[in-house]
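Researcher: Please translate sequence to structure tokens.
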Amino acid sequence: MLVVAIGYLIFTGVQVSSSYYYTVSEVVSMGNKVQGASLRLEGKVSPGSIQADHGNLNLEFDIFDDSEKSMPVVYKGIIPDLFQENLDVVVEGTVGQDGKFHADRLLTSCPSKYEAAAQDTSPN
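Model: Translation complete:
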């Protein structure tokens, strides 16, 4: 029985760590079917779309993908320091009846310029 329990924990751990991220075009193409479903969405922050109310921790922006489809995102919480236009982000939350993605979590990825700077400063 212990072996089965350990196997189950390993199996569920692998599933959680390999979570699927939807693209904007995938979510847009699903229409109303995704309303209320909890999911992860990835894309780039659309230039000129950021509206932040730092006092109330409210943030609204659009994200887009390679297909150029976009989706508005509403987020309430601490805004990551690296958050900016044209940055790859992952948001976790739900699509509301208003057609906006209501994010509970906002994750940013490091821009490639920081990766290049880190490589240049390494000792030889």
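Researcher: Any highlights?
Model: The CA atoms of residues 92 and 105 lie 5 Å apart.
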